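Input record (one chain):
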Amino acid sequence: MQYIIFYMANIFLKDPFKHQMDAVIACHNTDMDKFAYLMEMGTGKTLTALVDLFLLNQRDMVDYAVVLAPKSVYRNWMKEINTFISSEYDYKVNTWDPSLKDPYTKEHLGTDIFFLNALKYKLHIFLMNIEALSTPKGTKYLGHMMGRRSGEKTMMIVDESTTIKTHNAKRTKTLLKLSENIGYKRILTGTPVTKSPLDIFSQYAFLDKNILGKNYYSFRARYAKIVSRPTSGGRNFPLITGYQRLDELEKKIYTHAFRVKKEECVDLPPKIYQKRFIPMSEKQLVAYESLRRNAMFIFNDETTTSVNRLSQIVKLHQVCCGFTINDQGETHDLPTKRYDELFNVLEEVSGKVIIWANYRHNIQTITTKLKEKYGDTSTAAFYGDTENKVRMDLVKNFQDKGHDLTYLVANPKTGGYGITLTASHTVVYFSNNYDLEIRLQSEDRAHRIGQKNKVTYVDFVCKGTVDEKILLALKNKVDIASQVMGDELKAWIS
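The corresponding structure, as predicted from the sequence alone:
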């Protein structure tokens, strides 16, 4: 502890919490070249990683760092660095800029001048959204950079490392290849396992291929229970029916990790959950029953893919939310009391409100209705097409108590990561995403360090429908996407 305090003198503008210091000490007392900070949302994993990085820099062990994070998160690193790190320290931060036509011009900070500038500073940090690794330009760019900067004094940090949990995804393969010669590696996540224990393989393969083994399929064979199922084409496919040897797996994971749970280290006010049951209109009931009968036919076909099964749940859920989408991609509204109930909630509460909605059509409709009633400046929408700068401005305005922006309507998949929305202590789930990780992440945008009030979560539910089943599964910490091949989802609609 003392040596960390010594090296941190005159660097950090705010003192880290004890649990953050404990995490860094745990890392530096083990294999500090590879480590996982498994820290729940709201416990400050960004600051923990910064303490780690700047400590290694002070000890002349690291002079260059690459931070990869989701699009909605990576620019927040710049804010955190400016908040916690003294401007007197000799460091430089650059961010990935995909807008330039040619990333290899000398005018671009990412190439020659970028590296020449890097030599002028004690520490150089490069921030990049990890989605860029799914594009040729982003891949080529980082490859060029790593060709120049790979080595024992370079650190690579993957924030929200579940973005590389899919072992055969292009992004995952690219990152594993480009990071082979990196001296220090870190992964940051509060939920390393979201759908199954197999999620952990690629994240740890990034740290070190020797921890869990080099081959995903041998890893799966050891920790998953697998049976063969026939397809309509006469071939067999492996179906995972459960998991085994999880104590052994957990031991391997925590040999190179430090776990931080929110309730253990952060004194936060409680979460309060409410349900608002919303009856369906006659037209909703008719549409729901028609889709339900079709879904039963599809679920009874053993050759139906998991994607098709899940799509039936989504279609039924959309009816609950007041619309349908036909085969031509056209959206049709259905009469629903869901919007009326939203206004009822907003009239009952005070202060700023986050409204999570799973579907773009609902987000757009809600935004229009709220602006009509409360004024254009009262409401802002936040979803996939929202530019990064606009997103950051929206978050800043929402957090500003004096700003008119009162209602933030957002897709939890887009806005549920990495941002702080503690100005609100009321969160409405107009509709839920079926992904457990997204639900947990979105809840904790408001319930994190800085929140002084109890946070109330209001879920809209159509009773006796998949709407209710989705919420129940999420509350029981069940990831619905992992259940699509079993009979459990079939029971939801029968």
